[in-house]
Amino acid sequence: MKTYKIAAIPGDGIGTEVISAGVEVLQALAKRDGSFGFKVDHFDWGGEYYKKHGRMMPENGRDMIGKHDAILFGSAGHPDIPDHITLWGLRLAICQPFDQYANVRPTRVLPGITSPLRHVNGGELDWVIVRENSEGEYAGVGGRAHQGSPLEVATDVAMFTRAGVERIMRFAFKLARSRPRKLLTVVTKSNAQRHAMVMWDEIAVAVAREFPDVTWDKMLVDAMTMRMVTRPQSIDTVVATNLHADILSDLAAALAGSLGIAPTANFNPERAFPSMFEPIHGSAFDIMGKGIANPVGTFWSAVMMLEHLGEPAAATRLMKAIERVTADPRLHTPDLGGKARTADVTAGVIEAIERENV
Ligand code: NAD
Ligand code: MN
Q: Which ligand neighbours the alpha carbon of 92 most closely?
C-alpha cells in the first residue's frame, strides 16, 4: 500500500481549526479507498512558536519537510505579531525556497451556494487564476532608510525576470489548453508600469506562439475587476502577477460565495520540492476559537493535493462529497448565512465519503 507523507502546518487562528478538519477528512478518504494511506506529521510553527522561540519556524525547518510528498498549510497571521513577520517568516519562507512559483486558484460556484452576482449560478462561473508566486511585487527587494525622520524613504521594487515570467506564462498556457474552453486572459498593467509589465506582455506574445490552439486576450488589471463582475462568463483561465492575482483571487472567492470556500495550490511543477496546498483565507481573528470556520476551502485544497499526488479517483470522491454538503443549507457555516459549525461540515463530508458509491 502506498503511504503518502504529508507535512501539516496549521499555523495560527482558524488555520488550526480547518487543518485538523482537513486531516480527519483525508484519513476518512484513505480508509474508504483502502489502496493508499497518509502519514501526517504535524508542525506547530507559527505565531505561538514565534513567541517562544523568536522565529516562526526552526532554522532547519525546511529540511524537516523537504522530503514530504506534500504540505498542507493553514494560515500565518497572529493578532500580536506584525503581518509581514508572520507571512515572511513562515508562508513565504516555504514558498520561495521551495520554488513554488505557480499558485493555482480555482473558482466555482458550488451547488447550494449563492453568488453575490445576480444571474450567476453554477457552471457560469468556472475560473482558474494562475498567480506568479516567486517574484514580482513580492520579491522582497527594497529597503528603508532614515526611519522615523522626515527624510525617511521606503521602496518595494517589483522585480520580474525573463525566466520567471516565461515559466509562469508557459504554465498558464498549458493549464488553459488542458481545460475545455482553451481560453486564457493575461492580466497586465503595462499602461502605467512601463518596464516590467511591458516585458510581461512581450513574453506573453512570444509564449502564445507555442500554443496556437489556445485563444488568449490581454486585460488591464483594473478593467479585469470590472469584467469579473459584469461578464464573468467570458473568463476561463487567468494569469497575473503576484500582487494582481492576490487581489483578483480574493474578489473571485467572494464572487463564488465566500472566502472560506476558496482553495489554492502552490506548485513546484518540476517536483524538485514538495508543493503546498492551503485555503486562501487567513487566520480570521474575528471568528477564531469559535468553531465556526468554514473548512470547505481546506477540503477543496485537499482535492488539489490528491490530484497532485496521483489519486484522481479519491480527488473526485472528495469533491463530490464537498458538493453534496454545500448543497445542503443545514450544513452551511455562518459565512454562507447558515448556522452549522466546522465539526458539522466535517462530519457531513466524512459521512458522504463513507456512504457515497463514487
Ligand atoms: P482573513 O482571510 O483571515 O479574513 C477575512 C474575513 O473573511 C474575515 O471576516 C473572516 O472571518 C472571513 N473568513 C476567512 N476565512 C473564513 C472561513 N474559513 N470561514 C468563515 N469566514 C472566513 O483575512 P484578514 O482578516 O485580512 O487577515 C487576518 C490574518 O491572516 C492577518 O494576519 C493576515 O496577514 C493573515 N493572512 C494569512 C494568509 C495566509 O497565510 N495564506 C492569507 C490571508 C491573510
Ligand atoms: Mn491574499
A: 1
Work out which ligand 1 atom sits closest to the CA atom of 298. Answer: 18
Structural domains in the chain plus CATH codes: 1-101+260-358 (3.40.718.10), 115-143+150-256 (3.40.718.10)
Tell me which amino acid residue 342 is: T
Integer Cα distance of 99 and 274 in angstroms: 9
pLDDT in tens, 194-234: 999 999 999 999 999 999 999 999 999 999 999 999 999 99
Instruction: Examine the pLDDT at 122 and tell me if it is beyond 70.
Output: no
**Residue position matching grid coordinates 452549522:** 340
Instruction: Return the residue matching grid coordinates 474578489.
Output: 251
* 280 Cα: distance to centroid of ligand 2 (angstroms): 7
Residues 57 and 42: their CA atoms lie apart, in Å, by: 13
- Do the Cβ atoms of 238 and 217 come closer than 8 Å? no
Query: pTM above the 0.85 mark?
Result: yes
Nearest to 166 by CA among 269, 30, 319, 312: 269
User: Which residue has cell 481545460?
Assistant: 179
What band does 356 get if pLDDT is binned at 50, 70 and 90?
confident
Q: pLDDT of 255-279, one tens digit each? A: 999 999 999 999 999 999 999 999 9
- Residue closest by Cα to atom 10 of ligand 1: 284
DSSP for residue 42: E
Residue 68 pLDDT > 80: yes
For the Cβ of 293 lying below 6 angstroms from any atom of ligand 1, the answer is: yes
Mutation pick for ligand 1 pocket among 94, 281, 341, 345 (CB with most ligand atoms within 8 Å)? 281
Contact yes or no for 201/190 (Cβ under 8 A): yes
**DSSP characters over 231-298:** -GGG--EEEE-HHHHHHHHHHHHHHTT-GGG-EEEEE-TT-SS-EEEEES----TTTTTTT----HHH
